[in-house]
Amino acid sequence: MTRVSLNQPEVSHGTGGVLSIILSHFWFKCLGTMAFTSVFFMAYLFLLKHPFFPVTVIPATGLDGLIGIAPLALVLYLSLWLYLSLPVMLTGTRPGVVDYGLWVGAMCLTALTIFLFWPTAVPPALGDWAQQPGMAFLKDIDAAGNACPSLHVATAVFACFWINRQLGPYGGRRGLRALNIAWCVGIVYSTMATKQHMALDVVGGIALASAFALARHHATRMRAEPAVSGVVEPSPHPGGRVKFGPDRECILRP
């Protein structure tokens, strides 16, 4: 017995199949992402510039001392915005896109609530940014507040979990999974190498993302249970049957 998800259209495992998923509902994905990002940043920047309570400075740890400032890490840091587009672009249905948006939105709302009641920041004067124009630009546009938990880390780690699941049909290509994990690790590292976050912020971000990834996994399993009592329809395989449940999962039977 094989369980197959119908949340995405069946495609070949080649480049053409991936491209067809990326292009499906393309404008819905783009406009939805833009709307989500705009609303999020309005709330994020408001809390950053108008803390309601005294700001707590997150202390440095030994790990922070070991990881020095690396200007080239700025590239990895900024690559988050490309990385975060992958879960959306690799989703082939509108309900799937909305599902991802709801989970990410809930995670961001949780972090914003923490920032509201417990505003945090990294220690000041961690480097001479005037000698590094790129880093100085980052510090100007992204003040190192709303530090713990790191949403930069949380969104990257949550996306990593999501992309890893999306790569299921391509399981034979382990290089894709390795690349996904390596990119995520690079982004996490960059938050400390640019001194935008301390190690404690990173731990908080990983914990937040892991909690929501586990919650989503549990919710998906719970929704899949009613599939066994769905309606029997013809199978695409000769001599088989397909039983559909309300969650659009199916069980293929010979």
Automatic annotation (TrEMBL):
GO CC terms in record: membrane
InterPro entries: Aur1/Ipt1 (IPR026841)
Keyword Transmembrane helix: yes
Domain annotation Inositolphosphotransferase Aur1/Ipt1: ranges: 101-213
Keywords for the protein's UniProt record, in alphabetical order: Membrane, Transmembrane, Transmembrane helix
Transmembrane segments: 26-46, 66-85, 97-118, 143-163, 175-192, 198-215
Gene3D superfamilies xref list: Phosphatidic acid phosphatase type 2/haloperoxidase
Record bears the keyword Nuclease: no
Entry superkingdom: Bacteria
Name of the protein in its database record: Phosphatase PAP2 family protein
Species of provenance: Parasulfuritortus cantonensis
